[in-house]
Write a structure and sequence with these properties.
Length: 393
């Protein structure tokens, strides 16, 4: 993958600084184009929310605001942050173990939906809503056994996990929703997996969400306006061209909506990784190169305490090399790219071939805009944080 000129120009600017480069660079122009394309392909009765936990940087949120229906918060902290950074943007609130104080804050913000994860939470919410004298909009997150068992590395339901409600808790939850005057039942929520690369498999999963929705509405005589089908569209880190085919998915989704009689139901997506991954780059300047026990190691400024993605995914993260002025120390050889931490786990890519590499070169890790800086153990070893660069043109 060749780097966009906007990125190489930014790197030339960063090179003028006296100290070695360690930075995140975000291409907000590319992000805006990407979210616009995602939005444009969506069928008419679909809404798009951004799952902020993928990357909650203020500038990312602000770039997305005009193109999304709102943001999904997965904690009270995110909820407050989103409310502060993008006042007036609709918010939805999910995640297990919500504090009562967080439910109260969410009531105060008049959020668009509570994704209720348990019967206890539903009870607390009913009491809090009654105290506020305002109805709480509820989406019930389900963890049912589906015909279409999802197959992915990160599965959150259809088996024993802490997320959502099991079949046996459903009757109790539905009784509460029927009897509690301060709960406004809006619909059902499903988010069963991440890292989905297969469009047809994802459509089969969504078809089983749709059928479950109809079945429950029929069995329990419910008229629900909405279904939330989660996120989870995957990035192929080894070959980005084979990431989730969003336009292809949307075309087939339109047909599925008709087939499954869902055209009058509001369908909501809450997508994280697929929206923000590609706009981020993590840069490390090579500080040292050595050969230990027959293998080359390049040590860059920074490491997995800034960029935990390769460790979290247990993969070799894709990268480009921008050559500096030193003669190459490694030529057409594999090299392991590591950071500055005193742990053998601080590896970003293992024994990957490079044509040329020298001290002073810049390692540019691509697809670093989601679950990257914000999932990293940034205080470990007390290194300086990376510089943050946001490119708006
Ligand atoms: C994390 C999460 C998402 C977003 O997942 P991605 O894989 O980043 O698209 C959506 N919904 C819920 C409930 C989540 O926990």
């Amino acid at each position: 993958m060749s780097l966009p000129a906007r990125i190489t120009d930014a790197i030339s600017q960063l090179r003028k600084q006296p100290s070695p480069i360690c930075a995140y660079v975000y291409d907000l122009v590319a992000l805006e184009r990407h979210i616009q394309t995602i939005r444009e392909s969506l069928p008419a009765n679909c809404e798009l929310f951004y799952a902020a936990k993928a990357n909650p940087e203020a500038q990312i949120l602000q770039t997305l605001v005009p193109f999304v229906d709102g943001f999904e918060a997965a904690s009270g902290g995110e909820l407050r942050w989103l409310h502060q950074q993008c006042p007036g943007t609709p918010l939805i609130f999910g995640g297990p173990g919500k504090l009562e104080s967080e439910l109260e804050t969410a009531m105060e913000y008049q959020i668009s939906a509570f994704h209720v994860e348990s019967v206890n939470e539903l009870r607390s919410l009913a009491q809090i809503a009654a105290r506020c004298g305002r109805k709480a909009p509820v989406m019930l997150r389900l963890n049912l056994t589906l015909d279409e068992a999802p197959d992915s590395r990160l599965v959150m339901g259809g088996k024993a996990t802490p997320f959502g409600l099991d079949e046996f808790a459903l009757d109790e939850a539905l009784a509460l929703l029927r009897d509690e005057p301060w709960l406004a039942f809006q619909g059902l929520h499903f988010h069963l997996l991440s890292h989905q690369l297969d469009v047809d498999a994802h459509l089969r999963l969504i078809r089983s969400y749709f059928r479950t929705f109809h079945k429950l509405c029929l069995e329990h005589r419910l008229l629900l306006p909405m279904i939330n089908v989660g996120g989870g569209m995957g990035i192929n880190y080894q070959d980005h061209h084979r990431s989730f085919d969003w336009p292809g998915f949307c075309t087939k989704l339109s047909a599925l909506i008709i087939e499954e009689d869902m055209a009058t139901t509001q369908i909501r997506f809450e997508i994280g990784r697929f929206i923000s991954a590609a706009c981020g780059y993590y840069l490390m300047q090579v500080l040292d190169i050595k050969r230990n026990h027959g293998q080359y190691f390049a040590i860059g400024r920074g490491g997995t305490h800034h960029f935990r993605t390769p460790a979290a995914q247990n993969h070799n993260h894709p990268f480009d090399v921008i050559r500096g002025h030193q003669p190459a120390e490694i030529v057409n050889q594999p090299v392991t790219l590591v950071g500055q931490l005193c742990t053998p786990k601080d590896v970003l890519a293992k024994q990957q071939p490079v044509t040329e590499l020298a001290v002073g070169d810049i390692l540019v890790f691509t697809l670093a805009g989601a679950y990257a800086w914000n999932i990293s153990h940034r205080d470990f070893l007390m290194h300086e944080p990376p510089q943050m660069v946001f490119l708006k043109q």
